[in-house]
């Protein structure tokens, strides 16, 4: 209560401590509830994946050929292709960067065409052929572009590398490797925060020559 410009009975240090303690309890309660709800959501996903029917229409089964292997994966209708690949198909090589389609770290090939998997719903690609970085090597031998990235030292931290390589494979297949400038233009959707662009272009050009 304010009297004559002064506060009557101002709060003591112990009052602040009590308020902070209550805040911590509330935060812990909130986190606990969130974890519990997360566990419930995981349980619902497991039930849906076990073949039970979701009467609310929130899940679907995506049937796709992923890296040459036919798979049937139950997902929430709102699940992105990126999250399905990483969390349900066990393919973490495809990276989650910006999650807004701006960095290219999540690039995969769908029916031979490169896309940002963070912007695509998994259910939109039922019946598709999907290739991730894990599916490029054959019989234990690296894809020529993977080898070119090693030979040309085309990566530093490596976080963007899987997306760069997948996009580069698409770039080569599309025939956009006539010059370094053309490669840079058609690879412009893939960001390298380390700045290894020159070597990335060199690797793609080298692989294209041997394609």
Automatic annotation (TrEMBL):
It comes from the Bacteria. It is an enzyme of class 1 (oxidoreductase). Its EC number is 1.2.99.2. CDD domains: fer2 (cd00207). Residues 60-136 form the 2Fe-2S ferredoxin-type domain. Coiled coil: none annotated. It holds the Pfam family Fer2. GO terms for molecular function: 2 iron, 2 sulfur cluster binding; metal ion binding; oxidoreductase activity, acting on the aldehyde or oxo group of donors. Pathway: Alkaloid degradation; nicotine degradation. Keywords: 2Fe-2S, Iron, Iron-sulfur, Metal-binding, Oxidoreductase. This is Carbon monoxide dehydrogenase small chain. It comes from Mycobacterium basiliense. The gene is cutS.
């Amino acid at each position: 209560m304010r009297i004559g410009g002064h506060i009557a009975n101002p709060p003591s240090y112990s009052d602040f401590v009590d308020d902070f303690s209550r805040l911590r309890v509330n935060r812990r309660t909130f986190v606990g509830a969130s974890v519990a709800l997360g566990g419930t959501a995981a349980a619902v996903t497991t039930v849906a994946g076990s073949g039970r029917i979701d009467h609310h229409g929130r899940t679907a089964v995506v049937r796709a050929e992923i890296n040459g292997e036919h798979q049937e994966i139950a997902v929430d209708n709102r699940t992105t292709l990126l999250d399905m690949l990483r969390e349900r198909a066990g393919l973490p090589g495809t990276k989650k960067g910006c999650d807004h389609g701006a960095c290219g770290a999540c690039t995969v090939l769908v029916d031979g065409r490169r896309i940002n998997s963070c912007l695509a719903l998994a259910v939109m690609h039922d019946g598709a052929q999907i290739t991730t970085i894990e599916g490029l090597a054959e019989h234990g031998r690296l894809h020529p572009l993977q080898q070119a990235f090693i030979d040309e030292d085309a990566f530093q931290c490596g976080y963007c590398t899987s997306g760069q390589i997948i996009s580069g494979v698409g770039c080569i297949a599309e025939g956009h490797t006539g010059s370094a400038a053309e490669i840079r233009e058609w690879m412009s959707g893939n960001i390298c925060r380390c700045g290894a662009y020159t070597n990335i272009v060199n690797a793609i050009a080298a692989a294209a020559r041997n394609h």
